[in-house]
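This section describes the prediction task in plain terms. A model, or a person checking by hand, is given the sequence of a single protein chain and must write out its three-dimensional structure as a string of C-alpha cells. No templates, partner chains or ligands are provided. The sample shown here is typical of the held-out split.
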Amino acid sequence: MSELFDEVDEEVRRDQLKKLWDKYSIYIVALAVLIVAGVGGWRGYEYLEAKKAAEAGAAFDRAAELSEQNKHAEAEAAFADLITKAPSGYRALARLRLAAEVATRDQQAAAKLYDEIAADRSVGATEQDLARIRAAQLVMDNTTYPNMLQRLEPATAQGSTFRHTAREMLALSAWRANDATAARQWLDLIANDGETPQSLRARAEALQALLPPVAKS
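The expected answer:
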C-alpha cells in the first residue's frame, strides 16, 4: 500500500512540476539566455579592454623610444595621440610624458601642462604630486617662495610618495628667499621623517649648516 501512495505522490509531483514549467518556462529560458549573454558580454568586454591596454602599452613604448632617440617632436606627437585614444591609466602617463617632451622646447608651456595634470581630480594622487614636482622644477629659478609653497605644499603631507623631494625643494626655495624660519621648518620635517632617503638627508644637513643660528631669547 505504501508503494502505491509513493507512486501517487510521485505522479502528483510530476504533474505539479509540469504545470509550473508550462506556466514559467518562458521566463526560465529568458533568464538563462540573459545570464549566458551577460557572461559572454562581460568576457567580450574584458577581452577588448585587455586588447586596448596591450595596444596602448606598445604605442607608449614606441613613443618612449622616440624620446630616447632625441626625436622629441615625433615623441610629442605620439604621446599626444595616446592621450586621445589610450585607456585612463596610459592616458595619465602619456600626459606626463607629453609635458616632459614639451619641456625640451618650452619650459613655461610644459609647466602649464603639469599644472593642468596636478589640478585634475580624475588623475591619481601620485601622478598629481609628480606633476606638481615637475612643474615646480621648471619654474623654481624664476618664481617666489610663496608660489613654490602654493605649488608643492599638497605634496609634502606624510605618506605622499614625493614628499621628501617636495620638502627639499621648499627648503631650498625658502633659503634662496632668505626666509630662514621657513627653510628650517622644512629641514626639520626632513630630519624627523624616518623614511627620508640618506642622500637627501645629507643634503638637508648641508643646507641646515648654511642657515643663520637661531636667535636666543
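For orientation: The CA atoms of residues 171 and 183 lie 4 Å apart.
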